């Protein structure tokens, strides 16, 4: 049976949505491994829209599900329509959208609130003992979502401020290099720093490939 | 000396801009091969904006350079600021943007007009005997842009209607499978069908890797 892996998106673009390279490389590595990606995103407005050329806010309104559909070539569902029983595993790519749209960690740090549907699907996955992977800054939203239930080992690389905020939310931070993934075998949580470290697309691809392999092996 | 390869984008999303998977895999393969990607796009409005969830037009206005910047993580220039002498080669990913924004081939077929700056940079490349790669439907815009100068061998896979339009514009179409790239050694033009054939991201990645290798070997 083909493994079905949710890919939880948060828009389309590093500064206000999903980091595009991380999402596409996740989809590539899943397909190469023979797994089926099930793309999903919450059907909510983005926190804001950033012009990626100037890094300024544009004042536009865009919807997270609609913009995420660009990465998924239209093959995507609202998170509310997905249950953990539909999936064997779930992966969250990074980008600021993961902490601006899926939660407000980018603005509130350890006091963040996680989107209710995102919190629901992540907790369902963990309750069913199904593996969850998170890239880049996405472990922040994951840690907060699971805080009532578990205190996973996670990595976002080596940034002191961010790792302190993760520990304040109940995570146990481990330093990690970009070409590696940190595996919490007990909680079945796999994380990799990706563009929290960079420096380039070939570097993050190594860590994402490891993460996908580890997530699939934990199913 | 590191090879500098232009990556000519046309927005961000398969239905109204650059096909995101094709662009990201092009960037990945260039980085793995030790080449530097120089992302660029014309500073013009998109022909239209398509909601990628419903495939309907939204009526919004978006700029091709600004949206392309999402794929390039902000590291992108306007085509008008790039000369062929800055580059060793150039690659055009596909997606409808390549034939809606870089030209109007999607609407006018063989009677298409190519954006003036896009036509200029492509003709400069060819005049300097520098290789050009094109993915998916992008060979249509490339063929039209070069029609006064050369009649390259190109592929868009095996679609009869599209290949007939390419031949009407002076191209010589060769059938090709998704995991391969067609090489015109005389004109230094390399093309691969990518999502003109699909079916999946791992399949198009094979052809794009071949295309990148062939383009770099022609420098």
Question: Can you describe this structure?
Answer:
The structure is a homodimer of 219-residue chains. By secondary structure, the first copy, chain A, is an alpha/beta fold. Chain A has one domain: Rossmann fold, CATH 3.40.50. Chain A has helices at residues 20-32, 64-71, 97-100, 105-108, 116-127, 138-146, 160-168, 201-217, and strands at residues 4-8, 36-41, 76-78, 89-92, 132-135, 153-154, 172-173, 182-184, 189-192. In chain A, helix 1 crosses helix 8. The two termini of chain A are 12 Å apart. Chains A and B meet through helix 1, helix 2 and helix 8 of A and helix 1, helix 2 and helix 8 of B.
Features:
homodimer, 7-stranded mixed sheet, alpha/beta, 35% helix, 219 residues
Short précis:
The structure is a homodimer of 219-residue chains. By secondary structure, the first copy, chain A, is α/β, with parallel strands linked by helices.
Quaternary assembly: homodimer
Which secondary-structure class do the elements of chain A indicate?
alpha/beta
Helix content of chain A: 25-40%
Within CATH, the superfamily of chain A carries the name Class I glutamine amidotransferase (GATase) domain
Quickly count the domains of chain A: 1
Strand order of the biggest β-sheet of chain A = 3-2-1-4-5-9-8
Instruction: Say how many strands of chain A there are.
Output: 9
Q: Compute the gyration radius of chain A: what is it?
A: 15 Å
Q: State mean pLDDT of chain A (0 to 100 scale).
A: 97
Shape category of chain A: globular
Task: Report low-confidence residues of chain A grouped into runs of 5 or more.
Answer: none
Number of DSSP helical runs of chain A: 8
Which chain pair has the greatest contact?
A-B, 33 and 33 residues
Provide the β-strand percentage band of chain A.
15-25%
């Amino acid at each position: 049976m083909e493994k079905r892996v949710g890919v939880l998106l948060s828009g389309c673009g590093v500064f206000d949505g999903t980091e595009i390279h991380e999402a596409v490389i996740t989809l590539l590595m899943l397909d190469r491994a023979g797994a089926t990606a099930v793309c999903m995103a919450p059907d909510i407005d983005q926190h804001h829209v950033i012009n990626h050329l100037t890094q300024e806010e544009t004042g536009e309104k865009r919807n997270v599900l609609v913009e995420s559909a660009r990465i998924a070539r239209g093959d995507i569902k609202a998170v509310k329509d997905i249950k953990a029983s539909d999936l064997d595993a779930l992966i969250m790519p990074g980008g600021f959208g993961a902490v601006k749209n899926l939660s407000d960690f980018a603005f509130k740090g350890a006091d963040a609130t996680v989107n209710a549907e995102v919190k629901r699907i992540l907790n369902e996955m963990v309750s069913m003992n199904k593996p969850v992977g998170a890239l880049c800054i996405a472990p922040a939203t994951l840690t907060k979502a699971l805080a009532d239930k578990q205190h996973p080992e996670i990595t976002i690389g080596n940034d002191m401020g961010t790792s302190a905020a993760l520990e304040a939310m109940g995570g146990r931070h481990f330093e990690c290099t970009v070409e590696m993934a940190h595996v919490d075998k007990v909680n079945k949580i796999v994380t990799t720093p990706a563009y929290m470290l960079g420096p380039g697309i070939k570097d993050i691809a190594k860590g994402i490939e490891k993460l996908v392999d580890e997530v699939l092996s934990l199913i």
